[in-house]
Amino acid sequence: MRRGHRLDASLVIAGVRLEDEGRYRCELINGIEDESVAMTLRLEGVVFPYQPSRGRYQFNYYEAKQACEEQDGRLATYAQLYQAWTEGLDWCNAGWLLEGSVRYPVLTARAPCGGRGRPGIRSYGPRDRKRDRYDAFCFTSALSGHVFFVPGRLSLSEAHAACRRRGAMVAKVGHLYAAWKFSGLDQCDGGWLADGSVRFPITTPRPRCGGLPDPGVRSFGFPRPQQADYGTYCYSE
């Protein structure tokens, strides 16, 4: 607690983590008088869809939760997915959310993506957390470190070595999305990430750089780890 003057108290939350988002109630008791206030802590962040190298619809709920944590994130909430949809996220694969529901965001309704109904957040409703398998929608927030690109024609093992030589580690998927969202990282070169995927971030779309009209993180999927055709994205604190 931090007192600005005799009748003031401020709640200071330091070292905020992704799981700290939520509603808080602060109660001040001063003798026989008390006062309380409720507040909601919302983190500014980015939602990204995630699937493993094995392909789509491989995760049960607990595996999806672990996968997001391994990529420097956590499962997104419905509110976070809705916010991402209002900001342009359009994704045709269903994914787990933190509450245990399965949904996907559609901006442009189309036949292969749930039919030609209205745009919105399509829902599969609550599913069996152990048996049912889908992708994941992960959420991450601003970085404490920074992401940088190392050019070259590297295999995945060479990418790890290149980052270590620079006092860094191969970036995770969440690191790259956060760098794209909050630091404006724009690099028209595919680079290895820690999960074995190859991706690159684009903030200013242009010809011969991903071929899509909107900003985003592009993916080359999961090449063979021995394939020495890419640079790497490193992350350092």
Task: Show the helix and strand layout.
Layout: E1 22-30, E2 33-41, E3 45-50, H1 61-70, E4 74-75, H2 78-86, E5 95-96, E6 101-106, E7 120-126, E8 135-141, E9 146-154, H3 156-165, E10 169-170, H4 173-183, E11 191-192, E12 198-202, E13 216-219, E14 230-236
Parallel strand pairs: 5-8, 11-14
Antiparallel strand pairs: 1-2, 3-8, 4-8, 5-6, 6-7, 9-14, 10-14, 11-12, 12-13
Notes on the protein architecture:
With about 240 residues, the protein is α+β, with helices and mostly antiparallel strands. The chain folds into two domains: about 45-140, Mannose-Binding Protein A, subunit A (Mannose-Binding Protein A, Chain A, Roll); about 145-235, Mannose-Binding Protein A, subunit A (Mannose-Binding Protein A, Chain A, Roll). Helix content is about 15%, strand content about 30%. The chain has four helices and 14 strands. The strands form three sheets. Strands 3, 4, 5, 6, 7 and 8 form a six-stranded mixed β-sheet that branches. Strands 9, 10, 11, 12, 13 and 14 form a six-stranded mixed β-sheet that branches. Strand 11 and strand 12 (about 200) form a beta hairpin. It is globular and about 70 Å long. The mean pLDDT is about 90. Keywords: Disulfide bond, Extracellular matrix, Hyaluronic acid, Immunoglobulin domain, Repeat, Secreted. One of its GO terms (molecular function) is hyaluronic acid binding.
